[in-house]
Design goal:
Number of domains: 1
Number of strands: 0
Helix content: 40-55%
Structural class: mainly alpha
Radius of gyration: 15 Å
Largest sheet: none
Distance between the termini: 34 Å
Shape: elongated
Mean pLDDT: 76
Number of helices: 6
Length: 125
């Protein structure tokens, strides 16, 4: 990953002429790694991606769509400024987050249940 970040400028915004393979390789390596790790280590990977500037509010250099974050322990992850997702997007990714521990220390399923009354009242955070 370091090679991709430094030698292939993975941390810079993509340009039209940039080869798409660099980002595809970074995504593939990340998704493969996440499938092999326990929840705590998955959290460390997400934190690394954020701190390295690969997943930020303004830019996503490594697309985590479809990543296996089941059981990911994100309570110690400091992701302020990371790109958030809507409740609808979270619903679509429910299988990906199944068993994950959210930053507020709730399991994803419990966090989602807590949101239901607010969503039924027409309020979606």
């Amino acid at each position: 990953m370091t090679n991709l970040m430094i030698d292939h400028h993975l941390r810079t915004p993509p340009k039209e002429e940039d080869p798409k393979e660099v980002r595809a390789v970074a995504r593939s390596r990340t998704l493969t790694l996440l499938r092999r790790l326990d929840g705590e280590r998955k959290g460390h990977v997400v934190q690394f991606l954020y701190e390295s500037g690969l997943i930020t509010k303004d830019r996503t250099s490594v697309n985590l769509a479809g990543a296996n974050l089941e059981g990911a322990y994100l309570t110690s992850a400091i992701l302020s400024g990371a790109k958030g997702v809507s409740a609808e997007e979270l619903d679509q990714q429910a299988d990906v987050l199944k068993g994950a521990t959210m930053p507020n220390r709730q399991k994803y399923e419990d966090w989602l249940k807590d949101r239901e009354p607010r969503r039924e009242n027409g309020k979606d955070e």
